[in-house]
Amino acid sequence: MTTICLKPRKEESLKRFHPWVFSGAVARVVLDASHPSEAPEEGELVCVRSSAGEVLGVGHWQVGSIAVRILAFGVDKLPAGFWSERIRAAYKMREALGLITDPQFSTLNSQFSINNTFRLIHGEGDWLPGLIVDIYADTAVIQAHSVGMHRCREAIAEAVAANVPQVKNIYYKSDDTLPFKAQIEGERVGWLKAGDISSGEFWSIENGLQFRIDWLRGQKTGFFIDQRENRALVERYAAGKDVLNMFCYTGGFSLYALRGGARKVDSVDVSRKAIDLVNVNVAKNFPTATNHEAVVADAFEYLSAQKAQGRTYDLIILDPPAFAKHRDAVKNALRGYQRINAKAIEMIRPGGILFTFSCSQAVDKEAFRLAVFSAAAQTGRKVRILHQLHQPQDHPVNIFHPEGEYLKGLVLYVE
Ligand code: SAH
User: Fold this and answer.
1) In this structure, is residue 277 part of a structural domain?
2) Which of 31, 146, 184, 324 is the most buried (most CB within 10 A)?
3) Ligand 1 pocket: which of 207, 224, 269, 406 to mutate (most atoms within 8 A of CB)
């Protein structure tokens, strides 16, 4: 195996279990005599040692500012059964969190409404940097964010199939997430296991609500599992309210608002495909509902047009896509957050509520709060914070890797 030797003192963060080795920390690369090329290949397993020769761990080699992402600390090769052990530990944690309440697979009885939608592996948060695995009823969707994980996809799929009892199907979806320039062998999308896919239509249950999941054409792995707890909070506030779910995607928040007794729910998204799925999901869960409307529109245009007509709401949800995908886009993103939040606050009736989110990892909590503060100040309304929200427990933040925190939200009371 290739050995990566670090510069003096560069082992300290690894000893605290931070899983990244930056390229600037690497003193030299020692290849095996049998190595096929003159440099490590992107995605190959390497062993990392300190300047004194101490073994620090094994991980995947990457091209770019992060040179290695560590999979196992303190060892010079991956232990036998590595993937199974990690998948089992992650499953056990989700079970303990009460997220697997499908009576067929759970020891918990159904005092909780059924849930079979959860994130099984959340990258660094589950000690598997570069890997996402989401579970939708009997299907697992695997997503690689590194070439190393792409190379391991078959072994990962095998471990998921062997250790997650409900999984019959495994879909691999890494078309948008692998490094753009990387030389990659094998398909970036497709079935790795197709036990029961003849219906071609896949449904998953989140807290008792049914969602059609389209991982083939949908965003992320098909659904935004990270908003589960925040959706449940919307349900608590929805009774009797006129609700606008802006950036609704497949209608997650809308379904909870309807179940919570909203008077009327408007769902808006720029994607026609998303809006088609919102309608399918509403019809499935509330077949007789006449108080829901789904609209294909750009958020800024919709809010301006509605405001011009004097339209107001009791409860607005703003869950935009990441406005800043990179650090250098943060300034513009903050302006975007301020603009959209000001437009929403203006349309809230006195005593109404705004749920506002940012999923940009590059925009931290304080910066987001400042953008929302500026928006509130701009409108001249009195605004108080009721809740500060974040990603749910199946998207854990590794305390040694604070970079894993990305979702933040504020619930505001607007006078
Ligand atoms: N709230 C959703 C997830 C939102 S993801 C949920 O709970 O599932 C962000 C959504 O914003 C995507 O569906 C995307 O299609 C939509 N979007 C992106 N740009 C937009 C724009 N300018 N106007 C309206 N919707 C937009």
Assistant:
1) yes
2) 146
3) 269
Mean pLDDT split into 10-residue runs, the chain, 415 residues:
97 96 97 92 97 98 96 97 98 94 64 86 98 97 97 98 97 91 86 91 95 90 96 98 98 98 98 97 97 98 97 98 86 95 98 97 95 98 98 97 96 98
Tell me, what's the pLDDT at 107?
A: 58
Ligand 1 centroid to residue 320 C-alpha, Å: 5
The C-alpha atoms of residue 328 and residue 154 are separated, in whole angstroms, by 36
* 106 and 187 in a common domain: yes
pLDDT at site 348: 98
State the residue range of the domain holding 58. Answer: 2-73
Put simply, whether the predicted model's pTM sits higher than 0.90 gets the answer yes
Of 170, 204, 238, which one is at a domain's C-terminal end? 204
Tokens 């437009």 map to which residue?
343
Q: Is 359 a catalytic residue?
A: yes
Ligand 1 centre from 385 Cα, in Å? 24
pLDDT for the residue numbered 326? 81
Beta sheet of 264-269, edge-to-edge order = 292-296, 264-269, 242-246, 313-318, 348-358, 408-414, 383-390
Which residue lies with its CA nearest to atom 7 of ligand 1? Answer: 252
Cα of 269 from ligand 1 centre, angstroms: 5
